[in-house]
Specification:
The chain is α/β, with parallel strands linked by helices. It is 42% helix and 18% strand. It has a 6-stranded mixed beta sheet with strand order 3-4-14-9-10-13. A 4-stranded parallel beta sheet has the order 7-6-5-8, with helices on both faces. Strands 1-2 form a two-stranded antiparallel ribbon. It binds pyridoxal-5'-phosphate. The site of pyridoxal-5'-phosphate has 19 residues, from helix 11 and helix 15.
Length: 393
């Protein structure tokens, strides 16, 4: 069994493209061209050049000595926090802006919740001089003022979604409506391994540079390409998909996915999709999502905005259902404590999303000789106010 997408975009029973007919031409154009374009030498060359010179890749694979000492196992950190803009998201937006150019598009739209994907999209649009419209829920615009300012400074237009709960899912609906109305000139940059086929596979391939680098970096440091475990936090699942990608079909590499339990799985304020989700369709993809008994999507909750998503990408739903991945949910409190610990043991302040991954040691025991790679998806600067409020710093 393979854990990669098949040609119809299915991971086991999950994935596919459940889209309104009016969106079919847009997705079909992308589906028919994405693999061919990604295989073109000119595309690969430009993608890797920008990852190197603009994003700052390869990101280091760093042996965390004090953390390893504390937990009695060999811990490596894949430093995606050192990417330009402070997280892994830009790997994908660089790939998609180049894809859009190859498809002859001159306008970009995106949706954003916390604003991180909006900033990564606005960044690459500025880089390429392409018009950029970012849809964002009215409530999120009020909550995430610094990222709204960043997007504006980068030249993007931020459009408020004023319907429904005025958060991410409403912004997504507005973006889809825009795309239906502008099928010829516009490309829609989705920010995680979610959405209709081919998005989950395309985004996973762009992010797969993470595990491509881990392989040779670990070979240099440990004499072998494969760790015993790869650990990543999962919101939609893109940083995790990138960190797992080249290990999916290596059964000896353990895959650990960390979700946000929020205030606790049973509190009604959680984003632990594997624990709480049921099969359904969200953003054009069949996957696990949190929903009411009559199928309404539940509003998720997590202290970290990037994990505050009611579903997971279809790859992760399949990793969970098949048992290939081990899923652990971590509460706000556990994540915050772990984030403080990593800051003080390693001198690295992680994004609160990533802090969830560092809180697994109470739930998962490793052997002394195990090599465990944590994907350090982003840096904590954006979360400083949340850390300040939480720890009364
Ligand atoms: C957005 C974000 C995430 C969650 O998104 P995925 O698609 O699950 O990777 C995790 N970490 C950071 C730092 C983020 O910005």
């Amino acid at each position: 069994m393979s854990y990669h997408a098949n040609e119809k975009g299915y991971y086991g029973e999950f994935g596919g493209a459940f889209i309104p007919e009016m969106l079919y031409p847009n997705c079909e154009e992308l589906r028919q061209n994405y693999l061919r374009i990604m295989a073109e030498p000119s595309f690969k060359e430009e993608f890797h050049q920008l990852l190197k010179d603009y994003v700052g890749r390869p990101t280091p694979l760093y042996f965390a000595e004090r953390l390893s000492e504390k937990y009695q196992t060999k811990i490596y950190l894949k430093r995606e926090d050192l990417c330009h803009t402070g997280a892994h998201k830009v790997n994908n937006t660089i790939g998609q802006i180049l894809m859009a150019k190859k498809l002859g598009k001159n306008r970009i739209i995106a949706e954003t919740g916390a604003g991180q994907h909006g900033v990564a999209t606005a960044t690459v649009c500025a880089l390429m001089g392409i018009e950029c419209v970012v849809y964002m829920g009215e409530i999120d615009i009020a909550r995430q003022a610094p990222n709204v300012a960043r997007m504006k400074m980068l030249g993007a237009e931020v459009r408020a979604a004023k319907s429904g709960s005025r958060t991410l899912k409403d912004a997504t609906n507005e973006a889809i409506r825009d795309w239906i109305n502008n099928p010829v000139d516009t490309h829609y940059i989705i920010g995680s391994v979610v959405g209709p086929h081919p998005y989950p596979d395309m985004v996973a391939r762009f992010q797969s540079v993470i595990s491509e680098e881990i392989k040779w970096q670990l070979k240099e440091k440990e004499g072998r390409e494969n760790p015993d475990y790869v650990v990543a936090c999962v919101g939609g699942g893109s940083n995790a998909a990138g960190a797992y990608f080249h290990y999916l079909d290596e059964p000896k590499v353990g895959i650990i996915a960390v979700e946000a339990a929020g205030k606790g799985i049973d509190t009604g304020e959680s984003a632990a999709t594997s624990a709480l989700g049921k099969v359904g369709i969200i953003h054009g993809s069949k996957t696990l999502l949190m929903q009411t008994p009559d199928g309404q999507i539940t509003e998720p909750y997590s202290i970290s905005a990037g994990l505050d998503y009611p579903g997971v990408g279809p790859m992760h739903a399949h990793l969970f259902r098949s048992g290939r991945g081990e899923f652990i949910s971590i509460t706000d409190d556990e994540a915050m404590t772990a984030g403080l610990e990593v800051s003080q043991l390693e001198g690295i302040i992680p994004a609160i999303e990533t802090s969830h991954a560092f809180a697994i040691f109470d739930y998962k025991k490793f052997k002394k000789e195990d090599v465990v790679v944590f994907n350090l998806s982003g840096r904590g600067d954006k979360d400083l106010q949340t850390y300040i409020d939480y720890f009364k710093l």
